[in-house]
C-alpha cells in the first residue's frame, strides 16, 4: 500500500492558481480527478494526517502513487477539462452521475424505412428518437397501448415484420387496428412515417394541437353524416386525453425544467431528477453515489451539473438526436460556488441561455419538495439493500482478507467459470468486481480450444494462461515515468509519459492490463491447483487464488488439503457467491448464444461446399429451416449464389435422396 508522503509534491512546487488535478495508482491508472480554485490549498489537504481524512479519501490517497495537475485560466475551462478527464479515464473513486442505462425509454427508429416503436434500455444510437426515461417499463407499455389506437404504428421486431410480409397476413395488432400493417402493404411507407411523426410530436409535448385537430375532424365527420368515423375519432380523443391525464401538469406556465434534489449522509448521497417538459413530468431518474471526500450539497450540485449534462450532450451528439439535452431551467436545492461559470458552460451546450436557480415559492418550490421526498425515500430503500451498502462491502472485503490470509483487501476480484453441455460448445467467462461492485465493461468471454480433449480443469488452466499471457504482453517492457514537477499539459507534452498498462496513443487502460488482487475459480481443489500452477509457470506471484465449490460453498486454497469454511451469514461469503454467480450467468448466456447459433444451421452442415455465408443467405431468404424444407428446387436456385446442383444438394441433405426427388416433383406438379 503506497504511503502518501512518498509521492507528496515538494513544498512550494504546487501553484496557487485554479486548475484540475488527477491521482494515479502505481500502474499509472487514473483513480481520481478533481478541480480547485487553489491547487496548493486543495492538494495539501489530501496529505494531512490520515486518521483525520474521510474514509473514502483515505483509501484513495493510500491507493494512489502519483498526483499531477494542469493550471487553467478560467473556471469554465476547469469545468470542461475535469469533465473530459473523468469521461476519458473513468476514475474509480470519482462520483459518477452516469446516464443510468437501467431506466427504460420509448425508442422510435426513425432511421428505418418503416419506423418502429418499442421499449429500450441501453446506449443511444444514431437515427433513433428517445422519449423518457420512465420509472418502469410497464408505464411505457401502458401509455403505448393507449396511443396505438390513435397512432397505429409498427411495434414488432424485424423478424416478425419480415415473417408476416412473407405470409401476406398481418399480426393480431393489425386486425384490431392497433397497427396500420405496413408489412402487408395496408399503408405506404410515407403514410406510416407520417403516423410515427405525429406520435413523436404528441410525446414531445404538442398535445393541445393534436387534440384540437381531432376535435375539428370529429365535428366535420358528424356534419357530413359520417357517424362511424366520428365515433372512431371520439374514441381516439378519449384515448389521447387519458394518456395526457397520466402526465399531470406540475408547472402551469409550461416551463421546460429539470428539478434536482439530494438526500445524503457522510458516506453516500442519493440524487433524484424530474424532467419537466411543457409543464408536465416527462421522465424521472435517480442514483446513489459514494462520497470520496467531505462534500456538501453545493459541491454535489456542482458535480452533478457538469457531469450529467456533459454526458447528455455527448449522447445526443453521438446519436445525432435533435432533442435538446439541456433544459431552459435547472432547479437545484443550493447554488454551487461557481454558478455563473456553470450557467455559461450550460448555455454553450444548449445554444441559448440556461438558468441555474433555487425555487423560492409557488409551484416550482412545491415540486422541488416532492422531488426531495423521492430522494429521501430512494436513499432509505438503498440503505436496506446491503449489496449497495459501502459498510457491508468494506466488511466483506475485510473478511475475505482475514480468512484467506491476504496481505491487503482484494479491491479487484476476477472470477472464471466454464459452461458447456456434455463437452460441446465449451466457453468460459471472466467477470470483474472492484470495491465489491461489478465492473461489466471489463467482462471477458473465451472460446475454449480443443474442448473435446480436455475437461473443466484443463479449461480453467487454459483461460488463466490466456488471460495472464495477455497481461504480461501488455505490460512487458513498460515503466512508469513519474516526471518532474507533476504538472502536465493536456494538449502537448515534450516527453509523453509511458505508463504500465496504459495505451500511449489513447491514454486508456489496455484490456488485460490490470491483474486482480484475488482470482476466484468456480470449483474445488483440482481447479484451484490448476489455476495456481499456470500462474506459477508464468512467474506471477502477486495474485491470490481461491475456488468456491457449489456443494457446500467451501473456499479452497492452493496446496491446502482442507477447505476454508466461512460462516453462512458472512458478508465475505456473500460477496464471493455473488461474484461466482455472476460469472456463471455470464458464461451460460454466452454458451446459449453459441448453442443457438449452431442449432440454427445444423440441418445444413452436411451439404458439401456450403459455407457459413451461404447458409446464412438461405436462412435470410426463407426465414427458417422449416420454410426451407417446404421450398422447391427452383425456389432454392433463385437465391443468389446457388445453382441447380447446389440446390439439389441442399434438398438431399434436408430430406434424403428420395425425399428430394419427391419434393421436386411435388413442387413442379403444383406449378
UniProtKB/TrEMBL annotation:
What cellular component terms from Gene Ontology apply here? Answer: cytoplasm; excinuclease repair complex
- So where does this one cross the membrane? none
Specify where the region named Disordered lies, as residue ranges: 479-508
**Domain GIY-YIG, chain residue ranges per copy:** 16-95
Where located? Cytoplasm
Q: Which domain of life is it from?
A: Bacteria
Where it mainly occurs, coarsely classed, is: cytoplasm
Protein name, UniProt field:
UvrABC system protein C
Q: Which organism is it from?
A: Pseudonocardia endophytica
Upper lineage is: Bacteria, Bacillati, Actinomycetota, Actinomycetes, Pseudonocardiales
